[in-house]
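step 3/5: co-fold with magnesium ion
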Amino acid sequence: MATKNILIVPGDGIGQEVTAVGKKVLDAIAVKFGHTFHYDEALIGHVAIEATGEALPAESLEKMRKADAVLFGAVGHPKYDNDPSAKVRPEQGLLKMRKELGLYANLRPIKLFDELLSASSIKPEILKGADILFFRELTGDIYFGEKGRKNDGDTAYDIAEYSRYEVERIGRKAFEAARTRKKKLCSVDKANVLETSRLWREVIQKLALEYPDVEVEHQFVDSTAMMLIKNPCRFDVVVTANLFGDILTDEASQIAGSMGMLASASIGDGTGVYEPIHGSAHDITGKGIANPLASILSAALLLDISFGMKEESDLVISAVDQVLKQGFRTVDIADKNTNPENILGTEAMGVAVLKFI
Ligand code: IPM
Ligand code: MG
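step 4/5: write tokens
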């Protein structure tokens, strides 16, 4: 029986709706296992800008540092997407949180629940058995290098930068994880063109000598994008840089049927942050139809990774599995075989999962 402080950071759009459900699941786990979870809330993103003028107010960051773990929703607002001149943007809150908390490793497990084989646009026979764990580097690369304009604003640049140290620490995490799985690691880069990628490959090759039991391959990002769809089952652990990881994991979400299914864990030096990989989805915000399963599965990752509560975490995952086996779906994962009565909204899907906890 443990006592933990969990910070809920819903952020924008459907972040609010799905995180509320994720929190209920954590609550149910606390009751079932006799743990005490204390909760606090903090602002980030557009809602934080509206309230304080900043995308990540100092108060929120302070709360994050003190918490045992953070359950995060999403950031973003359409009003900024078509206004490139906006100086303060919701996404800055997310990037600052990652940098300030030292969250350099973003784990994105891509696993297809068997019941969702037909929800993907990829053929079932190609998908069956796919189980990939992505390690996306999260605090370096073109995301955090110098950016700016020159020639009176007519030329723009974003510098991509990686240090040996940054590649090594994410590389180690990926090798360690591969050891506990199928012992296969695919390192993805663009070493035929980019100097950062050549450093990346050099560091991973060197690390490989320390992990002779792990089979390592190096792939270029363009061909990886192709192979993920052609033969997803060939991958086990994949490690890659920030931008490549951002793009490849959205692509890989289709292996799991929907973006609405994918959870992620961002870990590093201090507090871990757990979040769906989907965004704020303002097109469906407030409609009560967002899929809460990614937030629920993020809660499961939180229990496992930050609290070492494997049994609790497994129970959450199996509850999701049970609900899917019973035929319940949110609209994003429904298909022609789904009984319309089994298409649930956000809250109802949460209630369905809670029944199995
Ligand atoms: C993600 C998102 C973010 C990113 C955006 C919202 C800044 O796409 O977490 O994958 O690019 O990292
Ligand atoms: Mg992304």
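step 5/5: annotate
Residues 75-76, 91, 94, 246, 277, 279 surround 3-isopropylmalic acid (ligand 1) (CB under 6 Å).
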